[in-house]
Amino acid sequence: xxxxxxxxxxxxxxxxxxxAGEGAGITIPEISEKEGxxxxxxxxxxxxxxxxxxxxxxxxxxxxxVLADMPEKIPVSRxxxxxxxxxxxxDFCRKYHxxxxxxxxxxxxxTIRDLWFSVQHxxxxxxxxxxxxxxxxYTITMPGTTTKK
Length: 149
Description:
By secondary structure, the chain is mostly helical.
């Protein structure tokens, strides 16, 4: 599995917004400077996050971007899915079949398909169980382990 630059930078941007605190807006130039991402790319990422109702843009003297919800209510899966989607989408077999409009044959016995469904399920389970607040607290609980940084 490979995360895209957009997913990695997007997660960094939304964490920067979350760390600013409740009601404290943070601007594109501030995020850009602190994360070492160009202003244009930061703006593109924030637009995607805003359109997916993860952040809100506030105008005015103390404006900027704030989270649309409390960080403990935003699972990492929502952020990653908004920025790039899933590793294995349900229409995968249609996209990558040589004839494009047909499902791979034989669908019922395709062992690779079952493998990707299993991998996606495991990834979803982990990302659904980790919130922005967990990352801010540096505490991530994975099946069978607890890690504190």
